[in-house]
Amino acid sequence: MDDIERRTYWRRNLRLMAVLLTIWALVSFGAGILFVEPLNKIVIAGFPLGFWFAQQGSIIVFVALIAIYVWRMDRLDAEFGIDEYEQEVHHS
């Protein structure tokens, strides 16, 4: 991989991380803190929705975003011809 490809790869990786972390921040901070009052008017399984987001929702969203990151990075690695297994085998 040459310098231009490395920069492109890294730029796309950073963009993906920025998007996913922004989503997580909006869910955890926005739904759990800023919009808690309107969300608390909605009750699910006996718990106000704002409380649910503050306690469970942001964690579940974070785990989902990790899965999305892994999936997208696998696709990005394949696009750039990066194979971690081959690199590990050749270095041992």
Description:
A hairpin with a 2-residue loop joins strand 1 and strand 2 (47-48). The model has no long low-confidence stretch (mean pLDDT 87). It is elongated, with a radius of gyration of 19 Å. It has 92 residues and is mainly alpha-helical. The two termini are 21 Å apart. It contains four helices and two strands; from the N terminus they run H-H-E-E-H-H. The longest helix has 32 residues, at 3-34.
Q: Which segments are poorly predicted (pLDDT under 50) over 5 or more consecutive residues?
A: none
End-to-end C-alpha gap: 21 Å
Adjacency order of strands in the biggest sheet: 1-2
Range of strand content: under 5%
Order of helices and strands: HHEEHH
**Major sheet characteristics:** 2 strands, antiparallel
Task: Please give a quick description of this structure.
By secondary structure, the protein is mainly alpha-helical. The chain has helices spanning 3-34, 36-40, 49-79, 84-91, and strands at 43-44, 47-48.
